[in-house]
Amino acid sequence: MKAWCSANHCSVEQLKYGLYKIKPATPDPKTSPVQFVPLATVDLLGSVSPAPSLILHIGKASIELHSGFDPMLLREVIHALTSPC
Fold first, then answer.
1. Model pLDDT for residues 37-67, shown as the tens digit of each residue
2. Beta bridge partners of 55
């Protein structure tokens, strides 16, 4: 760092501050990967139950759960909704 700063006419503190300022603008893809969760679609025409068993609210999203839901799919959806982008 010191050699680079001398060659570029800046102090080590200026370099550290500059690196600090650009750090949030360039996220490391290893620490914040984008993951897509496959979702199975179901034709709901005629198969909707009169009342949902449970309505789950996560942030601005609402998920309606009926008896017989896939718990693994729910786990993946919750993980996708709560993971930072």
1. 887 777 666 555 566 678 888 888 888 888 8
2. 64
